[in-house]
Design brief:
Chain A: It is an enzyme of class 4 (lyase). Chain A: Pathway: Lipid metabolism; fatty acid biosynthesis. Chain A: Its EC number is 4.2.1.134. Chain A: It is found in: Endoplasmic reticulum membrane; Membrane. Chain A: Belongs to the very long-chain fatty acids dehydratase HACD family. The complex is a heterodimer of chains A (248) and B (291). By secondary structure, chain A is an all-alpha fold. Chain A has one domain. Chain A contains nine helices and no strands. Chain A has helices at 11-22, 27-66, 72-86, 90-93, 98-117, 126-150, 156-164, 166-191, 208-239. In chain A, helix 2 (27-66) packs antiparallel against helix 3 (72-86), helix 3 (72-86) packs antiparallel against helix 5 (98-117) and helix 8 (166-191) runs antiparallel to helix 9 (208-239). The longest helix of chain A has 40 residues, at 27-66. Chain A is globular. Chain B has helices spanning 27-38, 70-89, 108-130, 142-162, 173-201, 229-245, 248-275, and strands at residues 2-7, 14-21, 67-69, 138-140. Classes of the chains: A mainly alpha (248), B mainly alpha (291).
Chain lengths: 248, 291
């Protein structure tokens, strides 16, 4: 039962209680560990936010110089891949639901590595810009929120942004992702990439084309759940409502 | 002492009221007091006098939600794979191309696999009806949907490839199949022996718990090394089946099953250790010496 005596939905407080328990009965030692971890956490958050800012600036500059989004993906792909994969660590660092974060991180990794990286023809699609912009703005807002929360210095507008921007950004991001996958379908079907056909000696088959169709379909149950989860968080945090949630 | 009130974090309802808590008590000690009062669920047989409560006993009611009997769940989840596999084996229309409808595989191993798979599930059904003695009568209703999806889904996935017109028989041919069949048969016998031994441990209608020990049946000698040899033999059966069919989905099913059974075995092992002071120290939960 981690942090079951926390008294507020505030990441910094939850973190304290968790660390206190893990430090067992080590009194002062426990507290020092807590502070060091705090600083590491807030530093990590601001570093991550910094990288997303760099990405955002790179994207804006590219567009201003070239006047087109073509080739944009190519120029930022290394940075993007690096910390989308790095985001795997997030699942352990960020004190939100493991399932929600897990779904989000895996869908990002899926998009970056299994779609845009592997299917070159779709890198110049407009829909790619759509989800890149959505992700960038979301992440900058989110990590600013975490950084400032930990430092106990949270300007209201950052909290406001964190719990309101998503209302537009989530659907925009999802639209970008779905349109990109849809654009990739003809190419996948034609090349038969990532697929195994019968007969083979392990008696298994895999069709990436149908896998993508199923993935697109899975957005239908998954996206509303994530969206309503954020809406409930929003009501709780911004309007102080007490909401009884079903068990995760 | 102080009064401490513990509320549910989500619903804010009062869960527990502790009076006479020492001011210098740590949170750990308070947690202990709390869990002691909430405690494990009481059994039907428990006597009021013997419970660790004061002059007033507070019993906590927990709504477990819609329930379904274990027997019903087991019968449903095992009948599915038996039936579904046969649909693929007989190449019922709309699964493979129309030219294959109701045709038969030319590979011996495919027929053998059908016999083994069917035997396995018939055995499970009969054991559910005549062998097993369940400690709990019911489980939550949603489990039947979860369990059936798992069993039926994997059965269909495996059966599709094994009975496919383009199925490729094992690389090492008859040798591989014979070895695999031997493993499978031995493990099925072993698994059944353990189920019988566990049944004999507990008289009909009773809920007593005893440490299982090896009997005259050599298959039960695995009790010397593991707490849950039934799971050990079950994993062995599926490994045998995987080698026999050389089918990756079977291997994956074995892996997932192994993972789940390991979790159960560890739980059972832990509760044996807690309940019996004289529990044999050599025993591991599921794999001798290892796991």
């Amino acid at each position: 039962i981690q942090g079951w005596l926390s008294h507020e939905m505030n990441p910094s407080v939850t973190a304290t209680v968790k660390l206190g328990q893990n430090g067992k009965e080590s009194g002062l030692g426990g507290l020092e560990t807590a502070e060091v971890l705090f600083q590491t956490q807030s530093l990590t958050y601001s570093k991550i936010r910094g990288k997303w800012l760099v990405l955002a600036i790179a994207m804006v500059r590219f567009y201003m110089e070239k006047g087109t989004h073509r080739g944009l993906y190519k120029s930022i792909q290394k940075t993007l891949k690096f910390f989308q994969t790095f985001a795997l660590l997030e699942v352990r660092i960020i004190p939100t639901s493991v399932l929600v974060t897990g779904v989000q991180v895996s869908s990002r990794i899926f998009m970056v590595w299994l779609i845009t990286h592997s299917i070159k023809p779709i890198q110049n699609e407009e829909s790619v810009v759509l989800f890149l912009v959505a992700w960038t703005v979301t992440e900058i807002t989110r990590y600013s929120f975490y950084t400032f929360s930990l430092l106990d210095h949270l300007p209201y507008f950052i909290k406001w942004a964190r719990y309101n921007f998503f209302i537009i950004l989530y659907p925009v991001g999802v639209a970008g992702e779905l349109l990109t996958i849809y654009a990739a379908l003809p190419y996948v079907k034609k090349t038969g990439m990532f697929s195994i056909r019968l007969p083979n000696k392990y008696n298994v088959s895999f069709d990436y084309y149908y896998f993508l169709l199923i993935t697109m379909a899975s957005y239908i149950p998954l996206f509303p759940q994530l969206y309503f989860h954020m809406l409930r968080q929003r009501r709780k945090v911004l309007h102080g409502e007490v909401i009884v949630e079903k068990d995760d | 002492g102080k009064h401490v009130e513990i509320l549910d974090a989500k619903t804010r309802e009062k869960l527990c009221f502790l009076d006479k808590v020492e001011p210098h008590a740590t949170i750990a000690e308070i947690k202990n007091l709390f869990t002691k009062t909430q405690g494990k669920s009481l059994k039907d047989e428990d006597v009021l006098q013997k419970l660790p409560v004061g002059t007033t006993a507070t019993l906590y009611f927990r709504d477990l939600g819609a329930q379904i009997s274990w027997v019903t769940v087991f019968l449903t989840e095992y009948a599915g794979p038996l039936f579904i596999y046969l649909l693929f084996y007989f190449r019922v229309p709309f699964i493979y191309g129309h030219k294959y409808d109701f045709t038969s595989s030319r590979h011996t191993v495919v027929h053998l696999a059908c016999i083994c798979h069917s035997f396995h599930y018939v055995k499970r059904l009969l054991e559910t009806l005549f062998v097993h003695r369940f400690s709990h009568g019911t489980m939550p209703l949603r489990n039947i949907f979860k369990n059936c999806t798992y069993y039926w889904g994997f059965a269909a996935w495996m059966a599709y490839y094994i009975n496919h017109p383009l199925y490729t028989p094992p690389t090492y041919g008859a040798q591989q199949v014979k070895l695999a069949l031997a493993i499978f048969v031995i493990c099925q016998l072993g698994n059944f022996s353990i189920h019988m031994a566990l049944r004999d441990l507990r008289p009909a209608g009773s809920k007593t718990r005893k440490i299982p020990y090896p009997t005259k049946n050599p298959f039960t000698w695995l009790f010397l090394l593991v707490s849950c040899p039934n799971y050990t033999y079950e994993v062995g059966s599926w490994i045998g089946f995987a080698i026999m069919t050389q089918c990756l989905p079977v291997a994956l099913f074995s892996l997932v099953g192994f993972t789940q059974m390991t979790i159960w075995a560890k739980g059972k092992h832990r509760s044996y250790l807690k309940e019996f002071r004289d529990y044999p120290p050599l025993r591991m939960p599921i794999i001798p010496f290892l796991l």
